[in-house]
Structure formats: C-alpha cells, structure tokens
Amino acid sequence: MARYAIGDIQGCYHSLMHLLEQVDFQPGRDSLWLVGDLINRGTGSLEVLRWVYAQRDHVRLVLGNHDLHAIAVAHHIRPPHRFDTLAALFAAEDGTQLLTWLRQQPLMVLEDDFAMLHAGLYPQWTLPQARALAAEVEAVLQSADYLSFLQQMYGNQPAAWDDRLTGIDRLRAITNGLTRMRLLDDAGAMEFAFKGEVQDIPAGYQPWFKVAARQSAKASQTILFGHWSALGLYQGEGVVALDTGCLWGRQLTAYTLETGAFTQVPLDPRDRPVGTVGE
C-alpha cells in the first residue's frame, strides 16, 4: 500500500492518467492525496472530477481556490473568468452531482504523519487549531446556507488573522489563508497579487512557511500544499510544495508519503487549451 500526494491537477486529465501509470496506482491497494485545484484551466475538468468521484473511496482531497471558484460560478455568484474551462462540467448531466460532492470536501486534512491544505497557514495557527478552523468553513459549505457564504466569501479583508474575528470576516480569513495565501508581510498580513518566483518577492514579505514564529513549524507532521506554481517543487521547513506548473507546460508531480520519492510527468499537450491561460 502506498499514499501518493499529487500537486494541482487543474483539469489536466491525460497528464494525471500518465502519472498514475508511472506510480502504478492501484485503487483498493493505494490511496491518493490531492492538494486542491482539481479543476479549471486544463481541458479535462469534467473528466478529472468524474474520475476522482469514481475513486472517492481511495482519495483524500482538499478544496483549492479554483474548486471554490467553480462552485461559485455554477451558482451564478461569480461570473466566469475568460480563461475558465468549466463549460463541459456545468453542462454535463452529472455536473450538479459532481459539484455538490466537491462542495462537501474538506479544506484541510490532518493525520498522524501528514497535514494537507491547498495554500497556507497563518503563523499563529497550530495544526490542530487550523484543522478546527477549517471545520468551521466546511460546516457552512456543507449546510443549507452555503449560498449565503459563497456570496460573501470573496474579498481580501481581513488580511491578517485575529482570534477575535467573528462571522463572515472570520470565515473569509480562514478560507483565504487555506486556499489563497502565499506571502505575509512583517505584520502578518497576506499579500494576494504576487504569484512569482521566490527571488522576486517584494521587500517586506516572505513565504508563509518561512515565518520564524510559525506555530505549525513545531508540528511532527509534514505539511503538503500546492497553489504556488512559480515556487515549484519545494521541500524544507517541514513542508512539501507540489504545484509544479503542469498546466504551464512543466510537470505534474506525485510524492510518495511512505518513501519521500517524487515522480513527475510532463504536461500532455491535449490538456492545455489553445491560446494563453491565466492563473
């Protein structure tokens, strides 16, 4: 039995199938950990979501910002982005069922040896605290009131975590941290515009996982995340970053939790839409 953590798929169905062949993934024997952004921007969002749903007993996943975006667009809460590739999913006979199931997935997974989330953790959060806070958002997303939350989910404020936050400000701050965070300034506030490489980080900011006082750095679990394609494959500070930019013509990466081995496959050209795609 093996557990394979896989970076942002973003609708790259053929690349995913190739990667699973390379690691000899066997449902029932092995399991997958998916770090979020399963869908959108690649040509196979419907196929990816159908495959993951069919293998759901052997898959653990967390929601990413593109997954939440797809759910919001499907409910006409947000307009489609010009680079979205979600039309086939929305039009499919099983599209509503797939998106309903996706909405019921967690924002964070925490086990004895690994934690998984899509983007980042505030420095103040321990892993158990982060898991409890993720559950607050999950409860709303899985409730009858989920549309009200989705309507208020978007926005960059509050940019920093405060335990005293309540209501939608609290839920938005949790969601932004877990699904959108890359950088923090010296005061602990998130910066959302930067998507580039580490050497180009503006002065006064640093990656969330390099903050010296980060409470989750004390954990025994290794933290798996994605979201930052320009960072690429990264291992250090108790974290493993797995978004290696498959959609952008680079690789899709699997990390074997038991051995620490990495397996990569290149983008299958069938997965990338004609023309330029935005992040």
CATH superfamily: Metallo-dependent phosphatases
| Low-pLDDT runs | none
Q: Any idea what the shape is?
A: globular
Q: In order across it, which strands form the biggest sheet?
A: 3-2-1-12-13
CATH architecture: 4-Layer Sandwich
Provide a count of the helices: 8
Number of strands: 13
Helix/strand class:
alpha/beta
How does the major sheet shape up? 5 strands, mixed
How confident is the prediction overall: mean pLDDT?
A: 96
Determine the strand fraction and express it as a percent band: 15-25%
Report on this structure.
The protein has helices spanning about 15-25, 45-55, 65-75, 85-90, 95-105, 125-140, 145-150, 165-180, and strands at about 5, 30-35, 60, 110, 115, 185, 190, 205, 220-225, 235, 240, 250-255, 260-265. The two termini are about 35 Å apart. The model has no long low-confidence stretch (mean pLDDT about 95). The chain has about 280 residues and is an alpha/beta fold. α3 (about 65-75) crosses α5. The strands form three sheets. It has a five-stranded mixed β-sheet with strand order 3-2-1-12-13, with helices on one face. A five-stranded mixed β-sheet has the order 4-5-9-11-10, with helices on one face. A three-stranded antiparallel β-sheet has the order 7-6-8, with no helix packed on it. It contains eight helices and 13 strands. It has one domain: Purple Acid Phosphatase, chain A, domain 2. A hairpin with a 3-residue loop joins β4 (about 110) and β5 (about 115).
